[in-house]
Amino acid sequence: MPLQKPADIAHEALRRIAEAQLPPTPEYFARFYSEIAQTPPAAPSSIAWPGLCRRLLNEWERSQAGLTHLQKIAARDRVLGGSDAEEVARQLAATIQQWERMPSRLLQPDAPIHHGDGDCQPWRQLWITSLRHALGSKVWEALKTHEALLQIDALLAQTETTPDQLLPHIHKIWQVTDQFAQDDLHIREGLQQLISLLLNNVSDLVEDERWLDGQIHVIQAITRDVRNPAGIDQAIASVKEVLFQQDKLKSGVHEARQAIRDLIHLVLTTVDGLADQSGQVHIQLEQLAEALNTTEDWKQIRQIVASVVDTSKIIKNHATETRDALRSAKARLQAAQARIYTLEEEMSAVSALVHVDPLTGVLNRRGLEAAFAREAARAQRLAQPLAIAIIDLDHFKRVNDMYGHDLGDQVLCGVVQVLRDTLRGSDTISRYGGEEFVLLMPDTSPEEALGILQRVQEQLHLRPFHTRDYPLHASFSGGISALRPGLTQDQTIALADEALYRAKHEGRRRIYLAAQANSST
Length: 521
Hints:
5-stranded mixed sheet, about 525 residues, mainly alpha
């Protein structure tokens, strides 16, 4: 009776190739497969089977750290269980690539294994070593003196221990490790909540939070999903650079504010001195007036008048000096205020750097919000159209699975470069999600935007990405909408996203207008 399942047929074909001591080429595999399945040989495939088979055999024989032989068998059965050759090849390539990234296992036991106590000692040592690596250093240190682990250690020292005796104690250990995991999750969620509370109330703690706006947004986005180490590293690097730039500007702000304090002190001192002198002059004038009322001597009267004139000159000179000092202080105060304003604007501009996607260099979602508000206001003011397009790379997940995230990053950056080379300088490019981009095209109708994206699609096809197997041609699907009165940014993008969904659903590599069912293929 012939075998029915494709996985069983593939296993048998590989076994016969090995028995016949033949190289594992696609031709031999197809010949044996068709013989076992009693079907005519399939037409030649474009899949690079020789390279896949060679890599598979190399990784099958290699011992990878963190990968057991049983896991390899399970992965093999899962991959070969498919019926579509293209899909099998894709999953096989992704599995092999995952194995290739793993380092080879270094068998370095913590202590030499002694066999003088019978067969149980190697198994006991293997158990301890395996458990230590499985639990990790933190949990292992906490469990070293746990009763369950001591019981297992005692049972393994006996020669007639059965698995049924070990299972209850092993179950207790997993319960403890599960509690550790729950504690870690609780701590992480608590820290996320604490950081969120601090960020939400930071505006109450500072005079002007504009220069903190960008950093706060990045930290809030990261704390919502802390499972992405690469994203956390990128956020840390971005915020550090912003803080470094702002630190240089803050010193100038402090100097300008200190200058304002000095000027205010000068004004107060001047006014206080003027008041003191005015009091003295007032007393002196009262004395001269009293002397004038009591004397009839013309010579003394002339002296009193001369004293009044001299006092008036002193008052005038002091008033002139005070006026000049106050004018100078006012000019310096205005200059210091202008300096503070300029520096604070520069700090806000530096904070806006975190509105840029660190991988591609285009705007991120927060940057898109500001750009949309600016372009929408401009379009309404000038009564011009504004086209909004959203594009999504086709089969991007397959690229990451088959060739790794490094090539995926190259594809994203390559697409951005094609967009920059094809779009106008007035158009805005933003990364909306993993492989999604939103484009703002001012003074452009949806029909004109459709023609622009068709040119982008053509240029992208002319720039393939090189892999170890064959050139990779990237493509995208797109949806286009237009700015309408009364619609928000989210509503406008949602219209374009609906058109994108139709393009994806009807075959990909298409661009649809929001108001049409079919636009471009």
